[in-house]
Design brief:
mainly alpha; two-stranded antiparallel ribbon; 13 helices; about 5% strand; signal; metal-binding; Cyt_c-like_dom; Cyt_c-like_dom_sf
Length: about 325
């Protein structure tokens, strides 16, 4: 009996000694300077709905490139996705636009905005465990959230999107942080997320926009202009793949809590985790080689559901939680 008890104690101690290392993560993300925190502001010539006043921007090559970049971000399927006339430019694998995640072309605080983003790159990326450029980050979205392939860095489309983001970052110094950048940081639950509860929440709060079967709502006037989706699909073949940040529970819950329901962001953290678990329980495009992501296991996200791990927890726990037990003490 004593031997069994001792074995259990050692096993528990080993489990508690490993987990997500916030200290190491902070060290890898550290900068050799103190970033300034700035207020969120839009440049002159664009409103809070992402609509550009072309008369204010003018007719210069820079202005035209900004305007083209805005169109690419807001109507990605038309120019760089399945609906692109030039088949060689069908880089996105689904009909999402960048605006499907970055509301109104990235102009809304706490909705993963692009405001100030140009000033924050290059930056460390834990998925690759190296410093990446803004172009790398854009292509990461095309390969994961858009289930597609990378855009050539020297293409006019990549230059236009980067120019648009640079314009949205007008007035910010190198490395400046902006209030409202990114999304809210999760309040972790003391239980595993429950997709059964999430199904009920989805029916009450989400289905009216995203469809009972997660199919989304297609823009009936798409041929005349605008985005492909009024509300994007959330699962099956025309959705983000298993490598996307939204497929990870904590990240999905953070996004849902920050942005949903649209215009009435009132879901609790428990609701956000449960509905995220429900959404991600459905089939979607598969991203290959996910085991190669996040090679530094000490800072591999707790909600990454593909091994290897160094913390003693199984894939189901990584997928649904609870996560507080995974934090290195």
């Amino acid at each position: 009996m004593k031997k069994i008890a001792l074995t259990m104690t050692v096993a528990l101690a080993a489990t508690c000694c490993f987990g997500f290392d916030y200290v190491k993560d902070a060290a890898k993300n550290s900068l050799p300077y103190e970033p300034k925190m700035q207020e969120f502001k839009l440049p002159n010539g664009i409103d809070e709905n992402g609509v550009i006043d072309e008369k204010i921007l003018g007719d210069s090559p820079f202005a035209k490139t900004v305007i083209f970049g805005s169109k690419l971000v807001n109507e990605t399927s038309r120019y760089l996705g399945p609906n692109a006339k030039d088949e060689k430019k069908r880089f996105a694998g689904n009909n999402y636009s960048c605006s499907s995640c970055h509301t109104y072309g990235g102009v809304v605080p706490n909705h993963s905005p692009f405001v100030g983003i140009y000033a924050r790159f290059p930056q460390y990326n834990s998925r690759a465990d190296q410093v990446v450029t803004l172009q790398d980050r854009i292509n990461g979205c095309f390969q994961h959230s858009m289930a597609g392939k990378p855009i050539p860095n020297n293409s006019k489309e990549m230059r236009a999107m980067v120019t648009y983001m640079q314009w949205l970052s007008t007035g910010y110094g190198v490395g400046d942080r902006v209030k409202g950048q990114g999304i809210l940081k999760a309040e972790l639950l003391d239980r595993a997320a429950d997709p059964v509860k999430g199904k009920e929440i989805y029916a009450q709060k989400c289905a009216s926009c995203h469809g009972e079967n997660g199919e989304g709502v297609v823009n009936a006037e798409f041929e005349k202009g605008g985005d492909y989706y009024l509300f994007p699909s959330l699962w099956e073949k025309d959705s983000y793949n298993t490598g996307a940040g939204m497929y990870r529970l904590i990240k999905a819950a953070e996004y849902i809590k920050s942005t949903m329901p649209k215009g009435d962001e009132t879901l609790s953290w428990e609701d956000s985790f449960d509905v995220a678990a429900y959404i991600n329980s459905h089939e979607r495009p598969i991203k290959s080689d996910r085991e190669k992501d996040f090679p530094d296991l000490d800072i591999k996200p707790m909600d990454m559901d593909v091994a290897p791990y160094n913390d003693g927890f199984d894939e189901k726990t990584h997928r649904f939680g609870p996560y507080q037990q995974m934090i290195k003490r």
